[in-house]
Amino acid sequence: MQPEAYRKLLERLSEIADLHRTAALLLWDRLTCMPPGGAAARGEQLATVRRLAHSRLTSPEFGELLEALREYESSLPPDGDEASMVRVARRHHDKATRIPAELVAERARAAAAGHEAWLKAREANRFEVFRPALERTVRLSREIASALGYTLSPLDPLIDLAEPGVDTAFCRSLFDELRKALVPLARAIAAKSPGDEDAILRQPFDPDLQLAMGKEAVAAIGFDFQRRGRVDLSVHPFTTSFSPDDTRITTRIDPHDFTNCFYSLLHEAGHGLYEQGLPRQFDRTVLCASASAGVHESQSRLWENFVGRSLAFWRFFLPRAARYFPEQLGAWTPEDLYRAVNRVTPSFIRTEADEVTYNLHVMLRFDLEQEVLEDRLAVADLKEAWNHKMQEYLGVVPPDDLRGILQDIHWSGSFGGDFQGYTLGNVMAAQLYEAAGAECPDLGAAFTRGHFQDLGEWMRQRVHAQGARFEPLELIRRATGRPLDAAAYLRYLREKFGQLYGV
Ligand code: ZN
After folding, report:
1. Marked catalytic residue, from 73, 163, 268, 275
2. How far, in Å, CA of 281 to CA of 214, rounded?
């Protein structure tokens, strides 16, 4: 029988989950429809709600409940529901108690101010406008790292927040292995590329029709935006969720290239499917959550790239796309679209980068975060270091700050511990996709018929329904039968782009 303390723990966890979801809703509103004048008040509201969540999680009473449950926990199988619940709750409690409440509130205020500073800097196209806000963010990241504690790098505890059990050294060795393969692969492709593979994408595409077409695609892969979700517009696409029955995704629209909206939607719908597939029997607890940011990203990249940029997908979807855009797309074959959406070229913007060069953008950010946090690089010199690394990894230098250091929202709210998840996600996606393919034969043939349920169901059982029970590397090992490494991802990239470009 469950002890009284366990029942009380669940009650506390539900309150904390509600507060976190309230903060998420305030954030969603800020990024989709809030007037700019609301920024300061919203910053305070977010700070208040987060402070409440933090104080509940760190309260002595919560600590006593966990203490009272130690014996119960050790009497149970470690992977069972109750033991996992107590273990994950304890992990949250231990981390949160190390970070003072005032620091949590200060970070929320800094994130709101940082977001506004980033928007202003983008308007002026000048990094200097953003620099003071970024310096504040970096200072707060260092304080959080010190509060959490570390022995080797201040980046370690920040990575661990997003990716429990993963550290800088693990990422460093995985990334070095990838970079050694990707830089020459990108160069070999560049030498063979005619440079106009994606010409068919550069036509006028009506924004409303783009959105309608994108919604048809995300519905086809299984995202429920009628009853259990929504699609909206924002500057930077994102996904958020207030329960498995209310998951919001956003996209943006480029009227001269339908792939911006289309692939943003597939990407975010991948995140959304994960949220909609979380174990609802644990709703409003720490187990009804993703395993990590990297695992989350594996699901978005899976649907965006492994599925959405496959030839099989375009055999299914091109006739549908041509119904929205008969003039623009009616004369093309699935092979034409496949080549166009897989053009490899060194570019400035990470979120628009192809699959081969994308990870080099991520490594650039990861390297810079490590250097700044370890005090080997000043924020004042960050732009120059950014441009230097772009030259080294991608062979191009951004012509202005909008296409360089100001390109995305990330460093406006936090610094350190976010970027590794993007490349870990790709590597995980490849290993998961390979394992799913070994168990579900002819996935490609199914995609051609518009049948995505086998892959969706496999991910639901092996990944989504597991919630936060296992740490990410353990989840991947259980789902795929082996430890995470770069092999499946490199196989996938070499085979796909080797065929496309004859390299
Ligand atoms: Zn994502």
Report:
1. 268
2. 31
How many Å lie between the centroid of ligand 1 and the Cα of residue 238?
7
Regions of the chain where pLDDT drops below 70: none
Ligand 1: centre distance to CA 58 (Å):
30
Q: Tell me, what's the pLDDT at 500? A: 96
Q: How many helices (H) and strands (E) are present in the chain, helices listed first?
A: 23, 3
* Alpha carbon of 24 to ligand 1 centroid (Å): 16
pLDDT value, residue 2: 87
CB 62 within 8 A of CB 93: yes
CB burial readout 222-244, b (16+ within 10 A) else e? bbebeebbebeebeebbbbbbbb
Task: Tell me the CA–centroid distance for residue 268 and ligand 1, in Å.
Answer: 6
**Are the C-beta atoms of 134 and 379 separated by less than 8 Å?**
yes
Hey, where are the domains in the chain?
Answer: 4-149, 168-501
What is the CA(418)–ligand 1 centre distance, in A? Answer: 11
Both tokens assigned to 45: 């509201």
User: Which residues are CB-contacts of 120 (< 8 A; sequence separation ≥ 6)?
Assistant: 129, 130
* Spatial contact of 140 and 103, defined as CB atoms under 8 Å apart: yes
pLDDT, residue 287, reads 98
Predicted pLDDT of residue 52: 93
CB atoms within 10 A of CB 417: 25
Q: pTM score > 0.90 for this model?
A: yes
Show Cβ contacts of residue 239 under 8 Å, excluding neighbours closer than 6 positions. 247, 248, 249, 250, 268, 271, 272, 275, 300
Tokens of 277: 């597939």
Distance 191 CA to ligand 1 centre (A): 30
Does the domain spanning 168-501 belong to CATH 1.10.357.140? Answer: no
Dihedrals φ, ψ of 59, to 5°? -65, 150
SS3 label, residue 230: strand
Task: Respond yes or no: is residue 268 known to be catalytic.
Answer: yes
Region for 471 from its dihedrals, namely left if φ exceeds 0, alpha if ψ lies in -120 to 50, beta otherwise: beta
**Gap between the Cα atoms of 5 and 2, Å rounded:** 8
**Rounded to the nearest whole angstrom, what is the distance from the C-alpha of residue 475 to the centroid of ligand 1?**
19
Contact criterion met (CB below 8 Å) for 374 and 416: no
Nearest-CA neighbor of 350 among 405, 309, 413? 405
Place of tokens 């005090």: 375
